[in-house]
Every structure is written in C-alpha cells, then in structure tokens.
Write a structure and sequence with these properties.
Layout (H helix, E strand, L loop, with lengths): L3 H8 L3 H34 L5 E6 L11 E2 L2 H8 L5 E2 L2 E2 L1 E12 L5 E9 L3 H4 L4 E5 L6 E5 L2 H5 L11 E4 L2 E10 L9 E4 H7 L4 E2 L1 E5 L6 H10 L5 E5 H11 L1 H31 L2 H9 L4 H30 L4 E4 L2 E4 L4 H16 L3 H8 L3 H6 L2
Parallel strand pairs: 6-11, 8-10
Antiparallel strand pairs: 1-13, 1-14, 2-12, 3-4, 5-6, 5-9, 5-13, 7-10, 8-11, 9-10, 15-16
C-alpha cells in the first residue's frame, strides 16, 4: 500500500486545482444544508403548530383554508352547549371564536407588508395554551398583540414593533399592547387583535372558525358528531394538527422545487468536478505506471487516488459546515402564513457528510478506472 503521506503531498502539488475541487464540494454540500434546513424547518413548524386536543370547526367546503371559511357568530355559544367534552378551567369553557384575515399592515416607517391577523377574545388563551405573553398585556379595543417573529413578516427591525409603538391597518392606528411567543408554531408571526375591531374593519358579520380544546384527543368524535347533527350551521370538524398537516402537503411543491434547484446546481458542479478529476489523473498516467513497475498494485493506486479525492471533498464539506453554521443556523425565514427558524439538526448533518463522502468516492471511480486501465507499456510512453 502507498503511504498516506503520498496522498496528502499530492494535494499540494497543484494548489489551484485543490481549491477548485474543494470549492466545488463546498458548494454542493452547502446547497444540501440550505435546501435541507429550509424543507425541514417549514415542514416541522407546520406539523407542530396544531395541538392534539384542539378541534377546529369551520365552514363546510373550507377545510383547506380557514381564511375563506365563514361561521355564524352564534355558533360559538351553540358549540359550548352542544359538545359535552370541552375542557374547562374555573368553569370557563375552552372555546374561541376567531377571525383570520390576511391584511396589509403599515408600520411607523411607512413600510407596507402583508401579515396574518387573528381576531380573538380573551378565551383564545384557554384554547392556545402554547401562547405565552412575554411583554405587555392582552389587547383591548384599539390595540394589537404581536408574535415574537412578526417583525419578520412586516420586514422591519424588531425595535420598530415594540410595546407602545403603533401600526396601521385599514387606515386605523393600533397601539402595540403586548408581545407573545408560541415556540415552534406559526402563531409567532401573527398579529392578534380585538375580534370586534377586526370584524368591523373587514366588514364581516361572521367568524372564520371556532377552535375548541377538548379534554382528550378522543373528544374529536363528539365535535365531529355535533357538526354532522347541526346541519343548519354548515360546519365541519377537523383536528387542528390535521389542518396544519394538510397545509404542509400544500406547500410540498415549494419544498420539492427547492430540492430540484439544488439538484440542478449540484449536477453542474459534479460534472465539472468529473472533468477536473479526469484532467488531474490523466496528467499523472506516467507517474502511476511507474509506481506499478516498482511493485505497487493497481488496487493500491486506486485506494491512494480515492484518499486524495476524499481529503479534497471532506475539506470542502468542513468548509461548507462552517459556512452553514455562520449563515444558516438560527436564520428566520418568513412564508405566507408564518415564520420558521433554520436549524442544523443531526439528520441534516449526516446527510451533508454522506453527500461529501459520496462526492469523494463515486466521483473518483470513473476517472481512476480510466487512468489505471491503460496498458502499462502505453502508459509509460504517455506524455
């Protein structure tokens, strides 16, 4: 076997080529980090947004979008009396009639942005127990409460949407009364406001949905039975967790487009790496033939070439990992209904390492076999 030092010395024989190969590997692996963290982050936040005990009752035919749903205002009290397994605290039923509306918001910097507004009453805190008020208080008339990541949706600095500042919606000014968080859910990028205010400004006389927290997951059957018995209300019941899973499926084409873009760019980089390896190995045919004449087998030479390639691609993988930690880890991205944070978890890191290893092994086989497959006399005469 050739000594490992032979492979390491060959890397520095042509520094420019080494940096080109490691840079190509770095690009491919960084794209894997980017696409993987984007896909996993979006899927994770949508699948974890719904509480297992919560049931959404919305207008029949609007199961795919709560914003399009219409539910009679009186349905909220009818649901309280018609479903016996609703969770209660201090005899207060966990039922929240809500209005969801995607609207244009103006900030103090006169920048317009789209954000999801949720018109609620104080009962919403009984239903959405993951919501925690971290600053200020619950909004009253003329006030709003912002999620911790709402500034990303509004495309402003967080300092511009603190408690006491104002925003405008439908030419009306609202004071920010509080900031809340709801870790791992889309609610962290929403704007909560008084339900009556939102219904008045949007000229609605109906709710978007009624969210109910049941005593247990099996309580969904009671809610579903109620929606089928009260045909006059035209309701359909769906688990909150299932609703957000459906949204995850809706956004699946976007996630696949991310992977497709990554694949196209990576394919170009891989073929460019193939050409570079062919050129690098072809220029050493005589050297490899000379090593065979002094007793080294083709297997030993193949392993040595594989070591060189792996050292190059794993160097690029290490560089890509550093760049991913600097530019991707903790970065918040916003999409139409929420914001999510990019994170480099263990499966993603393993995927990146496997990608770097595959580039160094699979990409080496064709050029190495071509160079080592040349007849020895012909290889010794090559220039």
């Amino acid at each position: 076997m050739l000594p490992f030092s032979y492979a390491t010395r060959n890397l520095l024989r042509d520094p420019a080529r080494f940096f080109q190969k490691s840079g190509g590997a770095c690009l491919v692996v960084f794209l894997v980090f980017s696409a993987g963290s984007f896909n996993r982050g979006m899927d994770r936040i949508l699948r974890s947004s719904g509480a297992p005990n919560n049931v959404i009752l919305l207008g029949a035919g609007s199961e795919e979008s709560v914003e399009r749903s219409e539910v009679a205002v009186q349905a909220e009290e009818l649901i309280v009396g018609g479903i016996p397994t609703i969770a209660k605290r201090n005899e207060i039923p966990a039922v929240s009639g809500e209005v969801h509306y995607m609207g244009i918001i103006n900030t103090s910097t006169q920048r317009e942005a789209q954000a999801l507004l949720r018109g609620v009453t104080l009962r919403a805190l009984e239903v959405h127990q993951e919501v925690r008020l971290i600053e200020g208080r619950f909004p009253q008339a003329g006030e709003v409460m912002l999620g911790k990541l709402t500034h990303r949706a509004l495309k402003v600095e967080q300092s511009e949407v603190t408690v006491g500042k104002t925003i405008e919606f439908e030419d009306q000014t609202f004071v920010i009364s509080g900031i809340f968080d709801a870790p791992g859910t889309v609610m962290e990028s929403e704007i909560w406001m008084n339900r009556t205010d939102l219904m008045t400004l949007t000229q609605r006389d109906s709710l978007s949905c009624v969210v109910v927290r049941m005593e247990s997951e099996s309580g969904f059957n009671r809610a579903d039975l109620f929606s089928k018995q009260r045909l006059d209300l035209e309701l359909v019941a769906i688990r909150e967790s299932d609703y957000y899973k459906q949204l995850s499926s809706f956004y699946a084409p976007i996630r696949w487009m991310t992977w497709l873009t990554t694949l196209m760019i990576a394919t170009g980089a891989i073929f460019g790496g193939f050409n570079m390896l062919y050129a690098a190995f072809s220029s050493r045919i005589r050297e490899l033939a000379a090593l065979q004449t002094i007793g080294y087998s083709r297997k030993s030479l193949f392993i040595s070439l594989m070591q060189e390639s792996l050292l190059t691609t794993m160097t690029g993988t290490l560089l890509a990992s550093v760049l991913a930690v600097i530019f991707l880890e903790g970065t918040t991205l916003y999409f139409s209904i929420g914001a999510f944070v990019l994170s480099l978890d263990l499966p993603l890191i393993l995927m990146a390492l496997i990608t770097g290893f595959a580039l160094g092994t699979i990409g080496t086989i064709p050029p190495a076999l071509r160079c080592l497959g040349t007849d020895l006399p012909k290889a010794l005469r090559s220039s």
